[in-house]
Specification:
This protein has 2 helices and no strands. The chain is mostly helical and 65 residues long. Helix 1 packs antiparallel against helix 2.
């Protein structure tokens, strides 16, 4: 075994955290007005989606213990 329950739980929980950041950012894009915040929001969405993909791939390759 090359991972622990802590590793898997971290990946699963931080993935949820990142997904919430995407949801919050999408709400900002829909309702926000400040150009700086809107740009930061776009950056957050792009970065978080990339990291979510990494966690998804890792969890797919590693069984939950």
């Amino acid at each position: 075994m090359d991972h622990s329950k802590v590793d898997y739980d971290f990946a699963a929980n931080i993935r949820m955290h990142h997904q919430m950041a995407v949801h919050m950012s999408q709400a900002e894009l829909k309702n926000g007005k400040d150009p700086q915040m809107l740009q930061v929001t776009k950056d957050i969405i792009a970065a978080q989606k990339k990291e979510i993909a990494v966690f998804d791939q890792w969890m797919k390759a590693h069984k939950k213990l």
